[in-house]
Every structure is written in C-alpha cells, then in structure tokens.
TrEMBL record:
NCBIfam families assigned: ManoateDhtManD, PRK15072.1
GO molecular function: magnesium ion binding; mannonate dehydratase activity
Pfam family, one: MR_MLE_C
Originating species: Occultella aeris
UniProt-recorded name of the protein: Starvation-sensing protein RspA
GO biological process terms held by the UniProt record: amino acid catabolic process; carbohydrate catabolic process
Residues in Mandelate racemase/muconate lactonizing enzyme C-terminal domain copies: 129-261
Matching SMART domains: MR_MLE
Length: 406
C-alpha cells in the first residue's frame, strides 16, 4: 500500500493548527498533528518542502522504518520543528494502519489497560474569588482533578490566568505586524503568594481534590526546592515545570529538598532530554506531547523507559494540541500500563467542527471511541474557510525590563 498524496493543511478556527493528511493508493487517509504554537509555518515548510517529496511512493505500512529514515536521514536531529513534522507522519501512518485493520488505534497498541482516561482541567483567576468560581465551573463540568493558576499581587499578567480589562496582556500591532504580548514577572512575589493560594483552595474545597500547579519554567533549582517544600502541606498531585529543565542536573537539588511530586517535559522532543531525569528518578511524570515528540512510536518507547523507574505518563494536552494530536494521545493513554493523567481543556465548538472526533469526555474522563484509526475526520472546506492568522506566544520580562522565561 503506497502513499500517493500528502497535504499539509493550515487552519485557524480560533487558533492555528497544522495537519498532515496522507492518502494511500487504496484511498485510505490518515491524519497527523504538526502544530507548533507560535512557529507553525516552520513545520509547514519542513513537511511540504522536505518530507512530502520523500514520502510519495513509499509503503504506508512501514511506520518504524519511515520514522527512522526521517529521523536519521535528515542528519540534523531533534528539535521541535523536526520532531513535530515527524510526529505528524508517524500518527498519520498509525491512523492508516488502524483503519486498514478496522480497529481503533488503541487495539494495535496492546488493547485497553483501563476503561477510561482520567483528565485534569485548568482553573484560573486573577483573584482568589475568581479562582474559586473557575474551580466550581470545572467541577460542574465533571472534572475530578484541577490545575490551579492565579494572578500574583503587583503583577499585571501572569501565565495561565486570563487577565481582564486594562490589565490584559494583548498582542500589540505595529504596521502590519502582530507582536507578542509582554507579561511581567517577579519570582519573589510569586513564591510569597502561591502557598497562600493553595491554603485557600484546600480550605474551600477540602483535602481530597487532586490539585496541580504549573510554574512554567520560571524558577532556579533552589527557588523550585523552596516552592516544592512550601506546598507540601497542601498535598499537590504535582508541581509542573518548576525549572527550565534542559538543565537536567538541576533537578537533583530540587528532589533532595521536597516530596512534592514533579512533572516535566512538555517542551522536550526526544528521550535524550529525559536521560538524567528518568534514569535517576528525579521526576514523577513525563509530560511530552505526541505532537512534539515525534509521534506515538517514540512516546510509547519513552513511557516504557519511564515505567522501569516507576514514572508515569501525563501527556501534554493544552488547546494548542489539535484534536488530531489529542485523539492520538487518548489512544496511547488507554493502552499503556503506566498511565498517570491526561491534560485536557477541550477545544472550541468551531475547532470540533473542523476536526470531528470520536473521542468523548464525561465525568472528568476521556475515551477514544471505537472508530477505526485515531477517529478524527477533517472537514477540509471548513478548514479552508479559516486561514492562518499570524500569532505568537507571549513573552515575559522582569520588572526592570530583563527578559525572563515565559
Ligand atoms: O504553547 C504553549 C502551551 O502549550 C503551554 O504554555 C501550555 O504549559 C502548558 C500546559 O501545561 O498546558
Ligand atoms: Mg505546562
């Protein structure tokens, strides 16, 4: 069965998504997500200009061989652009293979290891009362585990919080250009404030609700150690991305000082980013996305490696992972043994129309559905009606103007 067509579709039903659609000579199509938030068009070019010409005419059944030839054959290895492009090919080929088999993808990955996939949702509020309202809204939607992000006194706009009114960090426009929003940051103010937020949430919602928090790469190891320790009384499910973890060695210091569980990896794209973290069991959850890690094939291998160290999965699943990437994640979540939790904040109705999917959400859990393949259909006409919009992720500056990690 040969690949005879490969299209890269860019659509923006509210935010940009990049999708690869492969078609075989038997008329079977497969979809893969290649969305790299804020740098989308680089992956479009990588696929269109460099990968598609290599795929046409190749055997659609040879998933591992195709993966290895794209990874090794480029000579220039790793990196988010390369690995997002390879991920799209890998997932599209798994989609095709599962459709040929007439089975949902999770069956080809060993079958279900559980009945449903537990998720966490995102609560946020500039103030504590706003945060409580957001937690209540998620509980009403059925979520049973909740990530907590809040504003910090003195800061105008903070990661994960939809700042409102005059304080909103909106992208600016200059001539024809859209420029990134600039948020502000003060690590001392953050470290002083966050424990009181979790104390308030525990007092309001009790001891049982699993709570998570994302520090979004902003702390040094010693600051992260202090935060982890100060949050211990509030029994977090995890503290995420406490440092910019490309410095893997730094996590030794964090780990020595706190028993708060640690989750890392959404910006990682190969197993090599995890060697110290997993090999020395310095973290508790690996967070890579199918979309940014080269697809289902390598992520499955990472989870098997992590399992040897009692580390669980927690696939990255914000709104900038398209329903195609999300579907692939849910199949993997259902199949692997060392599943931990799945991040899920859903998509807009329009996005769900562009990408009609078989996966369902209820009672805070996902199920991939029983449609053959990954279970996502792309509405090409609707996708074309929503063309690419130039957009950037925000950036971050300290109060004296120094650039800081966002
Ligand atoms: O594009 C960037 C987002 O994917 C990231 O900021 C989301 O940190 C994130 C999370 O945990 O979902
Ligand atoms: Mg995160």
């Amino acid at each position: 069965m040969k690949i005879v067509d490969a299209k890269v579709v860019v659509t923006s039903p509210g935010r940009n998504f990049v999708t690869l659609q492969l078609t075989t000579d038997e008329g079977i199509t497969g979809l893969g997500d290649a969305t790299l938030n804020g740098r989308e068009l680089s992956v479009v070019s990588y696929l269109q200009d460099h990968v598609v010409p290599l795929l046409l005419g190749t055997d659609a059944h040879r998933i591992e061989d195709t993966w290895q030839s794209l990874y090794r054959g480029a000579y220039w290895r790793r990196g988010p652009v390369t690995m997002a492009a390879i991920a799209a090919v890998d997932v599209a080929l798994w989609d095709i293979k599962a459709k040929v088999a007439g089975l949902p993808l999770y069956q080809l990955l060993g079958g279900a290891s559980r009945d449903r996939v537990r998720t966490y949702g995102h609560a946020n509020g500039a103030s504590i009362p706003e945060l409580f309202d957001s937690v209540r809204a998620l509980l009403e939607q059925g979520y049973q585990s909740i990530r907590i992000q809040t504003g910090v006194p003195g800061l105008k706009a903070v990661y994960g919080v939809h700042a409102s009114g005059a304080h909103a960090a909106n992208p600016t426009r200059l001539d024809q250009r859209v420029l990134p929003a600039v948020e502000d940051w003060d690590t001392g103010a953050y470290l002083r404030h966050i424990p009181s937020v979790f104390e308030a949430v525990r007092n309001e919602f009790g001891p049982d609700l699993p709570l998570l928090h994302d520090a979004h790469h902003r702390l040094t190891p010693i600051q992260a150690a202090r935060l982890g320790r100060s949050l211990e009384p509030y029994d977090l499910f995890w503290l995420e991305d406490c440092t910019p973890a490309e410095n893997q060695d730094g996590l030794r210091l964090v780990r020595e000082h706190t028993t708060t569980p640690l989750a890392i990896g959404e910006v990682f794209n190969t197993v090599f980013d995890y060697q110290t973290l997993v090999g020395e069991q310095l973290i508790d959850y690996v967070r890579s996305a199918v979309t940014h890690f080269g697809g289902v094939s390598p992520l499955r291998k990472l989870f098997d490696y992590a399992a040897q160290h009692q580390i669980k999965s927690a696939i990255h699943g914000p709104e900038d992972i398209s329903p195609v990437g999300m579907a692939a994640a849910i199949h993997l979540d259902l199949a692997i043994h060392n599943f931990g939790i799945q991040e899920y904040s859903g998509h807009t109705d329009l996005t769900n129309e562009v990408f009609r999917h078989a996966y369902t959400f209820s009672d805070g859990h996902l199920h991939p559905g029983e449609a053959p393949g990954i279970g996502v259909e792309l509405d090409a006409e609707l996708a074309a009606a929503h063309p690419y919009q130039q957009a950037y992720l925000p950036t971050n500056r300290l109060q004296d103007g120094t650039v800081h990690d966002w």
